Input
Amino acid sequence: MSVAPVAGEALAAASHLEIATTSNIPAKSSAPSKPPWKLTGVASYVRYVERPEKIALASIQAGLGRNEATRAALIPIRKSSAWWELTQDERRKIFEDKSRHIADSLKYLPAIARQLYHCRDLGEPFDFLTWFEYASEHAADFENLVRHLRGTEEWNYVEREVDIRLERE
Output
């Protein structure tokens, strides 16, 4: 596992990642001691999409937990107050009309599966937890996707981002 800051403050190095959902939160963590950090988010409805985009995403995206997806990335992101001061319509224009977040990401599906978790309203240090899974043969595609997204106008509003990579054998 690697933990690398992209923007803002890093997270402490960790030996492993333990994922728990509300249906499988362990009574006692399998971690040997108190973890260096804990991130919490909620899967919610899809935001900033129009109906044709939602249909396109649903028709092509793969589910999580595929056997061949031996690589994963957890990318926590916090956006600036300037982002949150924009109206939803203004954020949509930056997100899709200018940055083409959805349109340009579609070509990476279904090879790269993803899930977004919202954290902002939970008082967490990040606004979003982005989780990606992919097979090793799609690692270059994932790097291209991340590089593209980080080069968009939308990413000018990111004030903290950490890139956590994992690989299952």
Remarks:
- The longest strand covers residues 158-167.
- The domain at 52-169 is CATH 3.30.70.3420 (Alpha-Beta Plaits).
